[in-house]
Structure formats: C-alpha cells, structure tokens
Amino acid sequence: MNKTLEDSLGKLAMLLIFGYLCIQQVQSFVISFNHRDQIALWQLAVLSQLCGVLFVGMILYYTVTRLPPRDSVVGLMPRIVAVTGTFVMMLLVVLPPEPISPTLRIVSTLMIILGTCLSIYCLNQLGRSFSIMATSRELRTGGGYSIVRHPLYGAEVVMILGVVLAHGSPLAFGVGLMWLALQIRRAQYEESVLRRTFPEYEDYARRVPMLIPGLRVPLLEGAARNGSERV
Q: What is the dihedral of CA 182, 183, 188, 190, to 10 degrees?
C-alpha cells in the first residue's frame, strides 16, 4: 500500500478511536467532579482524569497536524505490534480489579499523574512527528530525546505501572508485562525506519541509551541494532 494512503487511513482511524476515548474521558472527568464528595481523595482522582483528557487531546491534535511520512516499516508484523501495543491495556476493562490499600491507591494515582504529565511533555516534544505506526517524519534529538531515544515510552512505563498497581490483580501485571514487551519491539521497529531515513541516527544511538537514562542495556541495544538489520 502507498505510504501516503496508509498514513491517511491510519490518521482517520486514530481520530475516530481517540476521539471516542477523549469523549469518554471528558464524561468520566465531569461525573467524578460532580460527585467528588463521594470519592475518597477526589483531588487526586480528578487530577488524574484531567491529565488523561489533556494527553488524549494532544494525541488528537498532533494526529491532525503531523508531518507527512518520509518512510515506513515494511511488513505486517510491525503494524500488528504497533496496534496491539497501543490498545492492549484496554484488556483491564474486562479483568476484575482487586482491592488495594489506601496507601497503595495514593501511590498508584500519583504514578499515573506523574507518568501522564511526563507523557504530555514528551509528546509535545515529539510534536508533528507523532505516529502509532513505525514511520519516519522528522528526527528529534533534543529535550527528553537527548536523555533516552524513546522518552515517551519511558514516561508511559511510569503511567502503566500506576494503572497496574491501581488494578491490583496478578493478571493486570501480566498485561502490563505484555504491553512492555510490545513497546520494546515497537521501538525497535521504529529505529529500523529512522536508521534507514536519517544517516545521523546511528551516531545518535551510540550516544544516547534506548530506554533507561544513563544506562545502556546490552540486550536492548543489541536487539534494536539487530532488528534494524532484519527489517
């Protein structure tokens, strides 16, 4: 499929899906705010929901305004990984939550707020290069991208860990681990396209670790490099 057509279809799908999610989050925020006297620690709960609304709203904005693709990854598997990695956490909707202590509830909510705020910051830096699929639009190496090559995924790890802790069930931890594995593979596919499009990416990758600030994990770095050679 022509990459421009694929990008247009992907943009339409994202606008429909995330537009629906944004409406749902706004409704949840309004309901929670109107019934705040019935919610323990309602300030944290409402702030968490407000951050979620802002994050999804920014996804919509940068989907509409994003740059045209210069290149995209080849094959079906990278697309399956991208879509599954984006929406796999929705499985928690059908998993019954377990009760958690008030202290753990506070900790998990604070982690969700922190992770979402960091995600908003990273998404704003990624800007018009944002995409669900592994495509190259414009190379970002400043700000959070000077600390790790995939700061948005790193920020989302904090947010997802908070979500998993708040859910409390062992199955939720399993879904969280599945999400993490998919995000790592997704990052590897993205790097394969960036290396192919931007010759300077190789030097950037040698200077900046993949996911953990100040720490280069040989397993991750090797897998990313090997993945780029195979794709």
A: 120
